[in-house]
User: What shape does this take?
Amino acid sequence: MTDRPLKQIHLAAHFPGVNNTTVWTDPASRSQVEFASFRHLAETAERGRFDFFFLAEGLRLREVNGLIHDLDVVGRPESITVLGALAAVTTHLGLAATVNATFNEPYELARRFASLDHLSGGRSAWNVVTSSDAFTGENFRRGGYLDRADRYTRAAEFVQLAREFWDGEHVRHSGPQFDVEGRLSLPRPPQGHPVVIQAGDSDEGREFAAATADIIFSRHSTLAAGQTFHADVKRRLAAYGRKPDELKIMPGVTYVLGDTEDEAIERAAEIRRAQVGPQTTIAFLEQIWGIDLSDHDPDGPLPTVDPVVDSTLVQGRTRLGDPLEIAARWRAVAAEKQLSSRELVIEATGRQSFIGTPATIAAQLDAYVQNDAADGFILVPHLTPGGLDDFVDQVVPLLQERGVFRTEYTGTTLRDHLGLPVPGRR
Assistant: This one.
């Protein structure tokens, strides 16, 4: 232990509905499109004094063998439109939208986020994502022709230009990706620059985050993995003249609460079975194997054939890695633990990071932050829109008692909540 002051935990709420997180069969599950759903989760997060509310992005419905075959997609409104509406019914909560840097333009995007920042009084954030997916690109003039190697080149130039526009100066720029000249049609945003979030985990992505981001949305949800990632990314900051506390590392995590540890474990198992039903099992297998497995028994063993490496059967899903390596790893685990296809997918895709009583989970979250495995967490509930209610009611008060989470907002902007400086003009 050291004598340093207790680190304060940062918390954000992710609106669920992508991948197989949401349990659609639960009677409490509601719409992914109606404003009431977004409002409920945002108001719950603000009641819990969270830093921000986070929306993902889906530019095209995912397909399997040319058909929309995805239980997890039931509509995805455009994020900044939703956040603009939420700005009117919240007062302090940060509003973060995922917007693709591959299929947008710097001036137009800078204008949209500056508008949101002004309307919300300085609470906007941009989660920068990239894509080299030609399937998604078919909806856009770019058509997916951007090479994978150019994704971060374009994103870095994009963010640079957005920040120049936010500074309110006349921009003249000619570079590999953009040739623009002009001035933003709005005054400088209240935060100076909206907060920038980034989620890449590759070496290239980590370097991009160290150079550019205010928050990195990581996927490392174990203590040891979190500490390794935290140390690696923080050490990169010095090369860009930045201090360690100028980048917040916030992994996306899930949780399951129970009155006892055993009850929480039992409930977590029930949730995972609901999240990975027979059809979802087949969808995951087809993503790896790249072949039509509609006749495969989800409660039987894994497919015996090898995956098709360059298959286009599944379109619009994030590539998980080398299919042959994944299949070999899954077969080894299935053989060792005697798991069916469905049981294996449940284990391999598990996202329940914290399971236990409110006291246990509060202690675990605190331990991660105090031991430099994270600076905070982006919570991904399994229900829309009430999945965060129990956390705010039962866990947040315990974090406040520990002195590691605010009892009231002390500032008005998202940068205030995160302890981030207002950028000087470039």
